[in-house]
Amino acid sequence: MKKNLFTATFLILILAVSCSTQKETPMATNPIIFADVPDIAIVRVGDTYYMSSTTMHMSPGLPIMRSNDLVNWELVSYAYDVLIDNEMMRLENGQESYGFGSWASSMRFHDGVYYVSTFAATSGKTHIYTTTDIENGEWNEISFEPDLHDHTLFFDDDGRIYMIYACGELRLVELEPDLSGVIPGSEIVVIEDASRIAGEHIGLCAEGSQLLKHEGMYYLFNIVWPVNDIRTVLVHRADNIAGPYEGRVVLKDRGIAQGSLIDTPEGDWYAYMFRDYGAVGRIPYLMPVDWVDGWPVLGIAGKVPDTLDIPAGDGGISGIVASDEFNREPGDEKLPLVWQWNHNPDHRFWSLSDRPGYLRLTTGRVDANVLQARNTLTQRTFGPQSSAQTRIDIGNMNNGDCAGLIALQRDYGFVGVRKENDEYYLVLELAENNNPQELERVLLNQNHIYLRIDCDFNDMVDLAYFYYSLDGNEWIRIGKPLQMVYTLIHHFMGYRFGLFNYATETAGGYVDFDFFRVNDEIINPY
Where is the signal peptide (predicted)? Predict the structure, then answer.
């Protein structure tokens, strides 16, 4: 009897511990990445997921991320180093590609080959990148005219290859078997007015096409934005890729929209979308999906849940942003994948070897302002709050040079150093309402300075605070905070931290950045 009582008590304790352990397992939450990772497309190969996204005018571009659980992602590749080499992407003669570059990509895995396609007004072309080794291999490019807006690349079961594209009036074209272009005469309109099912008054017509095939039916996902309303997800379905299609609204929640579906090896389905979240950018969300009467039902009771039924894992965005001490060992990559250049870099004027342990940025030409400066090195900001700091050696600047740390968008803000008349000045420059103004300056009497920017994205307050330090310990706030603003037309990208150096008088000066350190703690500004 005592033995049975002991056994029963032991089993109860085991169950209690087990239940307690299960309750303590943290679950993933939305957004799955609190940073600018928009226009996502996902494929699953075995038990591994790969995701592409938009980074527009950045170089390298078209980032590829990997995950084993749909919530923890890390950068593994870029589809291209340079989208196109022209004046816009070189920031020459007053030209720039802010808000352009490559837009929403489509991603496929077919017969052992990975395909990522995009389009760009900057080049006027549709670009398709292919590789057999998505994490370590070389990417090959195929491009053709015209640039097919927000297209979805699709390999059908009969071996034919299609793209559906455009806005509102959605069109289908068949591609040549070698993907070299559109088969002449193949273009048809598959949905005359895809926006109609969302209402009569449409601000942004149905676009962002992503096509999938499930149990013999074609499902076309689009985003639409009715006037005085929020971004809305549409699905049209047909039993033939050419139609006719019938459609319905499948999600209308906080503007979370644009994406498609992905299944797990276990047979579960999820939808992936993004949400406009102010100055931090467009941030990705994940939601469960059920199939009911041949239609996908997104979310729970029509809403995107804040908590997912997936363990959180490591969480955070450590695979997307990272600190860098600029120390390199033989065999190390020069720049980890978290870094991207603002437009195409000029590789002659940056170095990690001229002074080991430092990033050297040398001016190669004269520029009018920081937005025209070449070789600005960037990483994403992230929410709900993020901070970046650096130490910069300034002793080799020329008169007229300006270097420092920037919160980069059209309405930018930077804390940095200007050299004028052989004197060094710490400066704060803000470009609120696209109107750059130097708001404060402090005379410096040393050849190095510590710089810091804190970004507060909580509840879309979107404020950036600027600091400097003479010794790296005591931080002094300079000037007023920047009211960060996400601009759709001009930059179309969440704010980025950036390291920059540009000349206004004579090229050839340089600065050395000792480190770039990023974290999620900010100084209480109040």
Answer: 1-23
> Are residues 429 and 490 both part of a single domain?
yes
Q: What is the DSSP string of 326-354?
A: ----TT--SS-TT-EEESS--GGGEESTT
Instruction: Assess if residue 299 is contained within a domain.
Output: yes
Which of the 8 DSSP states describes residue 35?
B
Residue ranges of the alpha helices (H) in 81-123? 87-90
Which residues, 6 or more positions from 190, have their beta carbon under 8 angstroms from its beta carbon? 164, 170, 171, 172, 241, 242, 243, 245
> CATH number of the domain that 365 lies in?
2.60.120.200
Low-confidence ranges of the chain (pLDDT < 70): 1-23
309 is known as an active-site residue: no
275 and 367 together in one domain: no
The CATH number of residue 167's host domain is 2.115.10.20
Residues 145, 231 share a domain: yes
207 is catalytic: yes
**Active-site hit among 36, 174, 207, 462:** 207
How does pLDDT run across 254-267, given as a tens digit for each residue?
A: 999 999 999 999 99
Domain that holds residue 378: 340-519
Query: Which residues, at least 6 apart from 262, have a Cβ–Cβ distance to it below 8 Å?
Result: 42, 43, 44, 49, 70, 269, 270, 271, 272
Contact 416, 380 (CB under 8 A): no
Cα–Cα distance list, 83 to 54, 120, 126 (Å): 12, 9, 11
Same domain, 290 and 355: no
If one counts the domains in the chain, the total is 2
Tens-digit pLDDT profile for residues 141-192:
999 999 999 999 999 999 999 999 999 999 999 999 999 999 999 999 999 9
Say if residues 304 and 251 touch (Cβ distance below 8 Å): yes
Alpha helix (H) residue ranges in 335-483:
none
Pair (238, 357) in one structural domain:
no
At 263 the pLDDT is 98
| Distance in angstroms (rounded) separating the CA atoms of residues 35 and 320 | 9
Which 3 state secondary structure label does DSSP give 125? strand
Q: Is residue 225 part of a domain?
A: yes
Is 328 part of a structural domain of the chain? no
User: In this predicted structure, what is the pLDDT of residue 23?
Assistant: 56
- Distance between CA atoms of residues 447 and 341, nearest Å: 26
DSSP string, 163-222: EEE-SSSEEEEEBPTTSSSBPTT--EEEES-TTGGG-S-EEEEEEEEEEEEETTEEEEEE
Classify the C-alpha dihedral 55-56-60-63 as positive or negative: positive
pTM of this structure: 0.93
The 8-class DSSP code of residue 434 comes to G
Structure tokens at 506: 């004579």
Q: Say whether both 197 and 262 belong to one domain.
A: yes
Among residues 39, 150, 253, 514, the one annotated as catalytic is 39
pLDDT computed for residue 8 by the predictor: 42
Do 367 and 227 lie in a common domain? no
